[in-house]
Amino acid sequence: MDTEKKQTQDRRARAYRTGAKVTRERMSREAPLDAAALEAVQASDIVVVPGIYDHVEQVLQALEMPFTTVGPAQLGSLHLRPEQLLVVNCPGDGLGRAVPAIRSFVEAGGSLFSTDWALQHVIEPAFPGTLAYNQRPTRDDVVRIEIRSQDNPFLQGVLDPGDDPLWWLEASSYPIKILDPSRVEVLISSSELQTRYGEAPVAVLFHVGEGEVFHMISHYYLQRTELRNARHQQTAEVYAAEKGIMFDAGMAAEASDLTLGDVESAATSSRLLANVLAAKKRKMARAGSEPSTDTERK
Length: 298
Known about the structure:
- The protein is of the alpha/beta class.
- The protein contains 10 helices and 12 strands.
- The chain has a single domain, classed as Class I glutamine amidotransferase (GATase) domain (Rossmann fold), CATH 3.40.50.880.
- An 8-stranded mixed β-sheet has the order 2-1-3-4-12-11-10-7, covered by helices on one side. A two-stranded antiparallel sheet has the order 5-9. A two-stranded antiparallel ribbon has the order 6-8.
- Helix 1 packs across helix 2, helix 1 crosses helix 10 and helix 2 packs across helix 10 (260-286).
Protein backbone atom coordinates (compact mmCIF):
# COMPACT_ATOMS: atom_id res chain seq x y z
CA MET A 1 0.00 0.00 0.00
CA ASP A 2 1.46 3.38 -0.96
CA THR A 3 2.12 5.96 1.74
CA GLU A 4 -0.53 8.46 0.57
CA LYS A 5 -3.30 5.84 0.55
CA LYS A 6 -2.28 4.60 3.98
CA GLN A 7 -2.35 8.15 5.34
CA THR A 8 -5.81 8.72 3.86
CA GLN A 9 -7.15 5.53 5.42
CA ASP A 10 -5.65 6.46 8.77
CA ARG A 11 -7.24 9.91 8.56
CA ARG A 12 -10.70 8.46 7.82
CA ALA A 13 -10.37 5.93 10.64
CA ARG A 14 -9.49 8.70 13.10
CA ALA A 15 -12.36 10.83 11.80
CA TYR A 16 -14.77 7.98 12.50
CA ARG A 17 -13.36 7.31 15.95
CA THR A 18 -13.69 11.00 16.78
CA GLY A 19 -17.20 11.22 15.30
CA ALA A 20 -18.23 8.10 17.21
CA LYS A 21 -16.96 9.54 20.49
CA VAL A 22 -18.95 12.71 19.90
CA THR A 23 -21.99 10.54 19.09
CA ARG A 24 -21.70 8.39 22.23
CA GLU A 25 -21.17 11.40 24.52
CA ARG A 26 -24.10 13.28 23.00
CA MET A 27 -26.37 10.25 23.35
CA SER A 28 -25.38 9.83 27.01
CA ARG A 29 -26.42 13.42 27.64
CA GLU A 30 -29.40 13.83 25.27
CA ALA A 31 -30.82 10.30 24.97
CA PRO A 32 -29.75 8.32 28.07
CA LEU A 33 -32.15 5.43 27.38
CA ASP A 34 -30.63 5.00 23.91
CA ALA A 35 -27.13 5.21 25.36
CA ALA A 36 -28.01 2.49 27.88
CA ALA A 37 -29.43 0.34 25.10
CA LEU A 38 -26.14 0.59 23.20
CA GLU A 39 -24.25 -0.56 26.27
CA ALA A 40 -26.42 -3.69 26.31
CA VAL A 41 -25.71 -4.67 22.67
CA GLN A 42 -24.10 -8.10 22.30
CA ALA A 43 -22.16 -9.53 19.38
CA SER A 44 -25.08 -11.81 18.52
CA ASP A 45 -27.38 -8.79 18.08
CA ILE A 46 -25.60 -7.64 14.91
CA VAL A 47 -24.82 -9.97 12.00
CA VAL A 48 -22.53 -8.44 9.37
CA VAL A 49 -22.06 -9.79 5.86
CA PRO A 50 -18.73 -8.29 4.74
CA GLY A 51 -18.46 -6.56 1.39
CA ILE A 52 -15.68 -5.92 -1.05
CA TYR A 53 -16.46 -2.23 -1.39
CA ASP A 54 -18.23 -1.08 1.78
CA HIS A 55 -17.30 -1.68 5.42
CA VAL A 56 -20.12 -0.78 7.80
CA GLU A 57 -18.31 -2.89 10.40
CA GLN A 58 -15.66 -0.17 10.62
CA VAL A 59 -18.34 2.28 11.76
CA LEU A 60 -19.47 -0.32 14.32
CA GLN A 61 -15.90 -0.69 15.52
CA ALA A 62 -15.55 3.08 15.90
CA LEU A 63 -18.75 3.04 17.98
CA GLU A 64 -17.26 0.15 20.00
CA MET A 65 -20.19 -2.09 19.08
CA PRO A 66 -19.61 -5.87 19.07
CA PHE A 67 -20.87 -7.87 16.08
CA THR A 68 -20.77 -11.27 14.42
CA THR A 69 -19.35 -11.68 10.92
CA VAL A 70 -20.92 -14.19 8.53
CA GLY A 71 -19.76 -14.83 4.97
CA PRO A 72 -22.24 -14.74 2.06
CA ALA A 73 -22.02 -18.51 1.61
CA GLN A 74 -22.83 -19.08 5.30
CA LEU A 75 -25.86 -16.81 5.50
CA GLY A 76 -28.25 -19.28 3.87
CA SER A 77 -27.56 -21.86 6.60
CA LEU A 78 -27.90 -19.37 9.45
CA HIS A 79 -30.99 -19.16 11.63
CA LEU A 80 -31.58 -15.42 11.84
CA ARG A 81 -33.73 -14.25 14.73
CA PRO A 82 -36.15 -11.27 14.85
CA GLU A 83 -34.13 -9.49 17.53
CA GLN A 84 -31.12 -9.18 15.23
CA LEU A 85 -29.88 -6.49 12.86
CA LEU A 86 -28.51 -7.90 9.61
CA VAL A 87 -25.99 -5.66 7.83
CA VAL A 88 -25.31 -6.41 4.16
CA ASN A 89 -22.38 -4.45 2.79
CA CYS A 90 -22.03 -3.49 -0.86
CA PRO A 91 -22.00 -5.34 -3.22
CA GLY A 92 -24.27 -7.89 -1.53
CA ASP A 93 -23.79 -10.43 -4.30
CA GLY A 94 -23.51 -14.16 -3.74
CA LEU A 95 -26.61 -14.11 -1.52
CA GLY A 96 -29.09 -15.53 -4.05
CA ARG A 97 -29.84 -18.65 -2.00
CA ALA A 98 -30.27 -16.56 1.16
CA VAL A 99 -32.74 -14.06 -0.32
CA PRO A 100 -35.91 -15.97 0.78
CA ALA A 101 -34.44 -16.34 4.27
CA ILE A 102 -33.68 -12.61 4.41
CA ARG A 103 -37.26 -11.78 3.50
CA SER A 104 -38.64 -14.22 6.10
CA PHE A 105 -36.28 -12.76 8.70
CA VAL A 106 -37.59 -9.23 8.09
CA GLU A 107 -41.23 -10.32 7.97
CA ALA A 108 -40.77 -11.95 11.39
CA GLY A 109 -39.43 -8.74 12.92
CA GLY A 110 -35.79 -8.61 11.88
CA SER A 111 -34.04 -5.44 10.73
CA LEU A 112 -31.99 -5.24 7.53
CA PHE A 113 -29.40 -2.52 6.86
CA SER A 114 -27.95 -2.57 3.33
CA THR A 115 -25.80 -0.35 1.15
CA ASP A 116 -25.37 0.56 -2.51
CA TRP A 117 -25.23 -2.42 -4.92
CA ALA A 118 -27.18 -4.55 -2.43
CA LEU A 119 -30.12 -2.60 -3.88
CA GLN A 120 -29.99 -4.80 -6.97
CA HIS A 121 -28.61 -7.97 -5.41
CA VAL A 122 -30.78 -8.14 -2.28
CA ILE A 123 -33.52 -5.48 -2.05
CA GLU A 124 -35.03 -5.90 -5.52
CA PRO A 125 -35.36 -9.72 -5.38
CA ALA A 126 -36.29 -9.93 -1.69
CA PHE A 127 -38.76 -7.03 -1.66
CA PRO A 128 -40.00 -6.53 -5.23
CA GLY A 129 -42.03 -3.43 -5.99
CA THR A 130 -40.46 -1.22 -3.30
CA LEU A 131 -37.11 0.09 -4.58
CA ALA A 132 -35.04 -0.25 -7.75
CA TYR A 133 -31.76 0.90 -9.26
CA ASN A 134 -32.49 3.67 -11.78
CA GLN A 135 -29.74 2.52 -14.17
CA ARG A 136 -27.86 5.84 -13.93
CA PRO A 137 -24.64 5.07 -12.01
CA THR A 138 -22.92 7.94 -10.28
CA ARG A 139 -19.42 9.29 -10.74
CA ASP A 140 -16.97 9.53 -7.84
CA ASP A 141 -18.74 12.51 -6.32
CA VAL A 142 -19.71 14.32 -3.11
CA VAL A 143 -23.16 15.82 -2.49
CA ARG A 144 -24.89 17.82 0.21
CA ILE A 145 -27.58 15.98 2.15
CA GLU A 146 -30.82 17.08 3.79
CA ILE A 147 -33.09 15.55 6.42
CA ARG A 148 -36.49 14.70 4.95
CA SER A 149 -38.25 13.23 7.99
CA GLN A 150 -37.60 15.62 10.86
CA ASP A 151 -39.72 13.73 13.40
CA ASN A 152 -38.35 10.26 12.74
CA PRO A 153 -36.58 8.97 15.89
CA PHE A 154 -33.85 7.35 13.78
CA LEU A 155 -32.74 10.87 12.82
CA GLN A 156 -32.48 12.29 16.34
CA GLY A 157 -29.19 14.19 16.58
CA VAL A 158 -28.15 13.28 13.03
CA LEU A 159 -28.41 16.82 11.67
CA ASP A 160 -28.74 19.96 13.76
CA PRO A 161 -29.45 23.52 12.59
CA GLY A 162 -26.30 24.87 11.00
CA ASP A 163 -24.87 21.46 10.11
CA ASP A 164 -23.78 20.96 6.51
CA PRO A 165 -22.52 17.38 6.07
CA LEU A 166 -21.51 15.98 2.70
CA TRP A 167 -22.10 12.43 1.45
CA TRP A 168 -19.55 10.64 -0.67
CA LEU A 169 -20.75 8.76 -3.75
CA GLU A 170 -18.50 5.94 -4.86
CA ALA A 171 -18.02 5.75 -8.62
CA SER A 172 -20.86 3.59 -10.01
CA SER A 173 -23.09 3.95 -6.95
CA TYR A 174 -26.73 3.01 -7.57
CA PRO A 175 -29.31 5.83 -7.24
CA ILE A 176 -32.48 4.68 -5.46
CA LYS A 177 -35.73 4.78 -7.41
CA ILE A 178 -38.81 4.51 -5.20
CA LEU A 179 -41.43 2.26 -6.77
CA ASP A 180 -44.00 2.44 -3.96
CA PRO A 181 -44.06 5.89 -2.31
CA SER A 182 -46.88 4.79 -0.02
CA ARG A 183 -44.57 2.28 1.67
CA VAL A 184 -41.14 3.92 1.51
CA GLU A 185 -40.09 6.77 3.79
CA VAL A 186 -37.17 8.93 2.67
CA LEU A 187 -35.04 9.70 5.73
CA ILE A 188 -32.22 11.61 4.05
CA SER A 189 -32.17 13.09 0.56
CA SER A 190 -29.97 15.26 -1.64
CA SER A 191 -31.14 17.80 -4.18
CA GLU A 192 -27.65 17.70 -5.71
CA LEU A 193 -27.96 13.93 -6.13
CA GLN A 194 -31.32 14.34 -7.87
CA THR A 195 -30.00 17.03 -10.22
CA ARG A 196 -26.97 14.99 -11.23
CA TYR A 197 -28.32 11.43 -11.24
CA GLY A 198 -32.11 11.59 -11.34
CA GLU A 199 -33.02 10.44 -7.81
CA ALA A 200 -32.88 12.31 -4.49
CA PRO A 201 -32.99 9.54 -1.81
CA VAL A 202 -29.81 8.92 0.18
CA ALA A 203 -31.32 6.85 3.00
CA VAL A 204 -34.74 5.17 2.98
CA LEU A 205 -36.82 3.04 5.30
CA PHE A 206 -39.72 0.68 4.68
CA HIS A 207 -41.52 -1.94 6.74
CA VAL A 208 -42.22 -5.54 5.79
CA GLY A 209 -44.38 -7.55 8.14
CA GLU A 210 -43.07 -6.95 11.66
CA GLY A 211 -39.61 -5.84 10.50
CA GLU A 212 -37.92 -3.00 8.69
CA VAL A 213 -35.42 -2.35 5.93
CA PHE A 214 -32.91 0.52 5.80
CA HIS A 215 -31.08 1.13 2.56
CA MET A 216 -28.42 3.72 1.73
CA ILE A 217 -26.88 4.85 -1.53
CA SER A 218 -23.11 4.49 -1.86
CA HIS A 219 -20.88 3.31 0.95
CA TYR A 220 -21.70 3.85 4.59
CA TYR A 221 -18.04 3.99 5.52
CA LEU A 222 -17.24 7.24 3.71
CA GLN A 223 -13.81 7.31 2.05
CA ARG A 224 -13.57 11.06 1.61
CA THR A 225 -15.39 14.36 1.93
CA GLU A 226 -14.98 17.88 0.60
CA LEU A 227 -14.31 21.17 2.36
CA ARG A 228 -16.67 23.55 0.57
CA ASN A 229 -16.65 26.53 2.91
CA ALA A 230 -14.82 28.19 5.78
CA ARG A 231 -16.85 26.29 8.39
CA HIS A 232 -15.80 22.91 6.96
CA GLN A 233 -12.16 23.99 7.20
CA GLN A 234 -12.31 24.70 10.93
CA THR A 235 -10.91 22.15 13.35
CA ALA A 236 -12.56 18.97 14.60
CA GLU A 237 -12.50 20.48 18.08
CA VAL A 238 -14.76 23.29 16.86
CA TYR A 239 -17.30 20.70 15.66
CA ALA A 240 -17.25 18.95 19.04
CA ALA A 241 -17.71 22.27 20.81
CA GLU A 242 -20.74 23.02 18.61
CA LYS A 243 -22.25 19.81 20.01
CA GLY A 244 -21.39 20.70 23.60
CA ILE A 245 -18.52 18.19 23.79
CA MET A 246 -15.10 19.17 25.13
CA PHE A 247 -12.11 17.20 23.88
CA ASP A 248 -9.96 15.49 26.48
CA ALA A 249 -6.24 15.13 25.83
CA GLY A 250 -6.66 11.82 24.03
CA MET A 251 -9.37 13.08 21.68
CA ALA A 252 -7.42 16.25 20.98
CA ALA A 253 -4.35 14.23 19.98
CA GLU A 254 -6.40 11.83 17.84
CA ALA A 255 -8.08 14.67 15.95
CA SER A 256 -5.22 17.15 15.89
CA ASP A 257 -5.07 17.41 12.07
CA LEU A 258 -8.74 16.68 11.33
CA THR A 259 -11.13 19.31 10.03
CA LEU A 260 -14.69 20.01 11.06
CA GLY A 261 -15.80 18.66 7.66
CA ASP A 262 -13.97 15.36 8.24
CA VAL A 263 -15.64 14.73 11.58
CA GLU A 264 -19.08 16.11 10.69
CA SER A 265 -19.57 13.57 7.89
CA ALA A 266 -18.32 10.71 10.07
CA ALA A 267 -20.44 11.75 13.04
CA THR A 268 -23.57 12.01 10.88
CA SER A 269 -23.31 8.41 9.68
CA SER A 270 -22.22 7.20 13.13
CA ARG A 271 -25.26 8.75 14.83
CA LEU A 272 -27.75 7.29 12.34
CA LEU A 273 -26.37 3.78 12.84
CA ALA A 274 -26.26 4.24 16.62
CA ASN A 275 -29.90 5.35 16.58
CA VAL A 276 -30.92 2.28 14.56
CA LEU A 277 -29.08 -0.03 16.98
CA ALA A 278 -30.50 1.63 20.08
CA ALA A 279 -34.06 1.58 18.75
CA LYS A 280 -33.74 -2.10 17.84
CA LYS A 281 -32.36 -3.04 21.25
CA ARG A 282 -35.00 -1.06 23.12
CA LYS A 283 -37.80 -2.53 21.00
CA MET A 284 -36.72 -6.07 21.76
CA ALA A 285 -36.27 -5.28 25.44
CA ARG A 286 -39.86 -3.98 25.58
CA ALA A 287 -41.03 -7.15 23.90
CA GLY A 288 -39.21 -9.18 26.55
CA SER A 289 -37.13 -10.95 23.93
CA GLU A 290 -33.40 -10.82 24.53
CA PRO A 291 -30.97 -12.55 22.15
CA SER A 292 -28.94 -15.55 23.16
CA THR A 293 -25.17 -15.15 23.31
CA ASP A 294 -24.45 -17.26 20.24
CA THR A 295 -25.66 -17.08 16.68
CA GLU A 296 -27.56 -20.30 15.96
CA ARG A 297 -27.15 -22.51 12.91
CA LYS A 298 -29.79 -24.72 11.37
